[in-house]
């Protein structure tokens, strides 16, 4: 349950973003665009940059682009910030473009993970990149965060290097890598960065910048929340810390002594008849104190103080060789994600003289509404850098940046998601605490779009975020919120402590659409329909005024087995929402339709589950044009299932029930084929599968059959004597992602494979 932001429920160690004394370079003022060349620096009167940000995206000065948010935030603190966007990574020369940074490098692969950006779920290379001018692929390397970090070191090796962005967030510990089908080391080790910032990084980056500006060594910055760093396993980083075996938090079952993953460096040395320097550092007796986060009735429970506790995870070598321990480590990581009670984590990499510990501090303190307003009120140009303009100063097909075109008239009203869907990366990156902007800040941004953004015709394309209707929702009790360790506030049902009042959102909608010059406000973000049905007034407001013919929602499946492992509500919640949606559409005199999204090949999905989903689709008149196949992004709980065949949502043991994993190209194709049951190209595969499943009764030419007996030939004729129009399902609908078979024009557009599920807004 964790959500709404009542900062009083969290540790007060975080300084407000606007409380720092500005760096001396603030005298240079604000740049229209952060410079991308020495010529631009000269025009600003700069002889050097304090910070240089390297990004895998084109530079768009807009609050939906991470490097712009971080750059503008640092600029507001008085630092001179330059940007190197999509550099040629084959040598270090392009990284010297702006000269040597005075303080540090800031490196990010971009708004999307570079591997998800380049490869499909079937590991095929994509032909486009929405974050590149002209939608051109290949402008960033694989594992861009690591490659960029290496080139920065080659360019100026003595400059501190700070890594961030979603690619870093999802790889902060040893993680399963889908593209190489193996467990890789923490990206902190592979990139050799000084600090990794995970999650939305404004709070951490501002503190680090000011500390480096007063010449504090980067190696001594080990106490900033939301960071990860590497230290020698035998140094004194553990001085004064209470180390806790992860097995005491969640026992994975019997482990043979000779492969115990829980031994500390000291214990390993003792077995060899030696001693460890860390023994002296931690020789003091452990003093247990009451846990202040627990209610009074549990005051007898004695635990080490959380702020000085660190949980030792199984080492990289152990999780690499043992999938059960990998699932266990993944579970512990997700248990320690509430900023109100999370403890630090440490994971060993290597042994002997090369042994290193990766330390991960607790998640950052969420931003207050005032701080969120500050972030979004920064002086963004709200357009791509002029370097991307054509000769007429505009943007033609070769210079347009699709990601910018998609969001140029949209407004982000909040961050985070407390849904906890196991396949989603929002939780690992932005967290479960909903951080909402004030209504006034949102209205100001809409007015700025209306008055300043070229091409605005009166329609706001989206007023949302990771989830459209979680604005200002959260736990009713700050004390419960700070102590909660549940992975979701809405699964298996909506928590009784979760506030579901949509009134603030309704009021914002009404105020926004009443603005002069605003003709229409659409909701393009995904909707959490199980929350929406708790507020019929919200559904009525949404359906009556903010749906442009189609509304996308994500049931993801119809069958309970995969839904349980996704932590998604049953299809009954969809039916309740559809009833309200249809009712209010009729009352508004509008023909509007739901566009449900479904996932193929998710862990725990059987062939029979997909068959029943296909029958549901046909019964309800839906045809999927493009389908989403499960994509194992690093660190997600569903990815741990995929790799280990265990369920990390429960205590992981050697005897844990195995999860059915959809592996291999043929079975993954079969699950996709069930979603596209209407496509003749899939009929041979489906016929063979249905016969093998003992469901040949679904093959035939009647309305109750899933697929026909005939097969179209390449010349348009059919291999059966049946006429072409013998079934309405013989010809697939073209163009739409998922459209009802009603004769309406197909919905344009494709649901992004990684988009808001694997990408994050506003993080370095």
Folded structure, characterized:
- Helix content is 29%, strand content 13%.
- It has 764 residues and is an alpha/beta fold.
- Among the domains are: 25-164 and 200-226 and 364-408, no CATH class; 410-525, Transcription Regulator spoIIAA, CATH 3.30.750; 547-679 and 733-755, 2-Layer Sandwich (Transcription Regulator spoIIAA); 694-731, no CATH class.
- Strands 3-1-4-5-8-9-15-14-13-10 form a 10-stranded mixed beta sheet, sandwiched between helices.
- Helix 2 (66-76) packs across helix 7 (202-213), helix 18 packs parallel to helix 20 and helix 20 packs across helix 22 (571-587).
- The longest helix is centred in the C-terminal third of the chain and has 17 residues, at 571-587.
Question: In terms of topology, how is this protein built?
Answer:
Elements: H1 38-44, E1 51-55, E2 60-61, H2 66-76, E3 81-85, E4 104-108, H3 114-118, H4 144-155, E5 161-164, H5 166-169, E6 175-177, E7 182-184, H6 187-191, E8 195-197, H7 202-213, E9 227-232, E10 242-245, H8 246-249, H9 265-271, H10 277-281, E11 289-290, E12 302-303, E13 309-312, H11 316-321, H12 323-335, E14 344-349, E15 356-360, H13 369-376, E16 383-384, H14 402-407, E17 410-412, E18 414-415, H15 426-430, E19 435-436, H16 439-452, E20 459-460, E21 462-464, E22 474-475, H17 478-483, E23 498-499, H18 503-513, E24 520-521, H19 529-532, H20 536-545, E25 550-556, H21 560-566, H22 571-587, E26 593-600, H23 607-619, E27 622-624, E28 628-629, H24 637-644, H25 665-675, H26 683-692, E29 738-740, H27 755-758
Parallel strand pairs: 1-3, 1-4, 4-5, 5-8, 10-13, 13-14, 17-21, 20-24, 25-26, 26-28
Antiparallel strand pairs: 2-16, 6-7, 8-9, 9-15, 11-12, 14-15, 18-19, 22-23, 27-29
Helix pairs in contact: 2-7, 12-24, 16-18, 18-20, 20-22, 23-25
């Amino acid at each position: 349950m964790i959500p709404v932001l009542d900062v009083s429920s969290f540790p007060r160690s975080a300084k407000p973003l606007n409380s720092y004394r500005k760096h001396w370079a603030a005298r240079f003022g604000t740049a229209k665009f952060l410079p991308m060349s020495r010529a631009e620096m000269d025009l600003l009167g700069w002889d050097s940059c304090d910070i240089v940000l390297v990004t895998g995206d084109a530079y768009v000065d807009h609050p939906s682009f991470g490097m712009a948010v971080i750059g503008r935030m640092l600029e507001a603190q008085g630092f001179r910030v330059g940007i190197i966007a999509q550099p040629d990574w084959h040598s270090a020369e392009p990284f010297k473009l702006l000269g040597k940074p005075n303080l540090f490098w800031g490196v990010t692969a971009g708004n999307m993970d570079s591997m998800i950006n380049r490869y499909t779920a079937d590991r095929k290379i994509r032909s486009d990149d929405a974050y590149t001018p002209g939608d051109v692929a290949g402008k960033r390397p694989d594992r861009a965060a690591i490659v960029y970090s290496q080139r920065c070191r080659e360019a100026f090796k003595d400059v501190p290097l700070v890594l961030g962005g979603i690619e870093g967030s999802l790889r902060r510990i040893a993680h399963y890598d889908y593209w190489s089908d193996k467990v890789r080391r923490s990206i902190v080790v592979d990139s050799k960065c000084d600090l990794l910032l995970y999650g939305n990084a404004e709070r951490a980056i501002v503190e680090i910048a000011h500390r480096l500006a007063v010449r504090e060594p980067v190696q001594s910055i080990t106490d900033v929340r939301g960071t990860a760093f590497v230290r020698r396993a035998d140094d004194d980083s553990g001085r004064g810390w209470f180390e806790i075996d992860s097995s005491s938090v969640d026992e994975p079952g019997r482990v043979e002594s000779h492969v115990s993953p829980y031994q500390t460096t000291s214990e390993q040395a003792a077995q060899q008849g030696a001693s460890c320097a860390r023994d002296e550092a931690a020789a003091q007796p452990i003093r247990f104190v009451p846990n202040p986060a627990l209610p009074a009735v549990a005051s007898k429970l004695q635990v080490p103080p959380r702020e000085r506790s660190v949980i030792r995870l199984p080492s990289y070598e152990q999780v690499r060789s043992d999938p059960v321990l990998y699932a266990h480590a993944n579970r512990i990581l997700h248990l320690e994600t509430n900023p109100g009670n999370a403890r630090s984590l440490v994971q060993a990499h290597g042994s002997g003289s090369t042994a290193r510990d990766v330390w991960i501090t607790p998640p950052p303190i969420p931003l207050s509404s005032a701080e969120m307003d500050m972030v979004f009120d920064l002086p963004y140009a709200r357009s791509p850098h002029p370097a991307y303009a054509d000769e007429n100063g505009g943007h033609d097909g070769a210079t347009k940046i699709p990601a910018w075109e998609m969001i140029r008239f949209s407004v982000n009203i909040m961050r985070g998601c407390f849904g906890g869907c196991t396949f989603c990366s929002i939780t690992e990156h932005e967290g479960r605490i909903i951080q909402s902007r004030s209504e006034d800040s949102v209205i100001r941004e809409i007015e700025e779009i209306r008055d300043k953004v070229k091409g605005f015709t009166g329609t706001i394309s989206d007023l949302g975020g990771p989830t459209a209707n979680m604005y200002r929702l959260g736990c009713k009790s700050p004390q419960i919120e700070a102590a909660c360790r549940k992975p979701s506030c809405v699964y298996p049902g909506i928590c009784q402590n979760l506030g579901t009042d949509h009134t603030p959102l309704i009021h914002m909608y009404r105020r926004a659409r009443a603005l002069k010059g605003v003709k229409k406000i659409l909701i393009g973000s995904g909707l959490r329909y199980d929350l929406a049905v708790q507020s019929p007034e919200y559904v009525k407001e949404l359906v009556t005024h903010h749906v442009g013919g189609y509304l996308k929602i994500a049931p993801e499946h119809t069958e309970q087995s995969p839904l349980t492992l996704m932590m998604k509500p049953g299809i009954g919640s969809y039916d309740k929402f559809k009833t309200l949606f249809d009712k209010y559409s009729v009352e508004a005199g509008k023909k509007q339709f739901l566009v449900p999204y479904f996932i193929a090949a998710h862990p725990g999905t059987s062939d029979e589950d997909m068959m029943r989903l296909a029958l549901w689709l046909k019964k309800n008149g839906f045809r999927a044009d493009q389908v989403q196949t499960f994509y194992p992004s690093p660190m997600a709980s569903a990815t741990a299932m995929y790799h280990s065949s265990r369920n990390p949502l429960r205590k992981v043991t050697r005897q844990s029930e195995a999860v059915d994993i959809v592996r291999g190209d043929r079975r993954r194709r079969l699950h996709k084929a069930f979603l596209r049951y209407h496509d003749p190209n899939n009929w041979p595969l489906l016929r063979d599968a249905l016969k093998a499943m003992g469901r040949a009764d679904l093959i035939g030419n009647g309305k109750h059959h899933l697929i026909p007996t005939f097969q179209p030939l390449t010349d348009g004729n059919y291999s059966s004597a049946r006429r072409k129009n013998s079934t309405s399902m013989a010809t697939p609908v073209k163009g739409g992602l998922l459209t009802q078979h009603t004769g309406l024009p197909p919905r344009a557009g494709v649901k992004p494979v990684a988009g808001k599920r694997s990408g994050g807004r506003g993080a370095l």
